[in-house]
Amino acid sequence: MIPIKKMNILKIDEGLPRRVLHTSLIVAALVLLISISNWSFDVTLGLAVGMGISTVFFMILCNSVKSLAIIEKNKRMPFFVIVAILKFIVLSIALFLVFEHLSISYLALLIGIGLAQSIVFLKLIGMGLVNFMNRTNQIENKEISNTKLQVTNKKQYSI
Question: What residue segments make up the domains of the chain, in order of their start?
Answer without folding.
Answer: 16-137
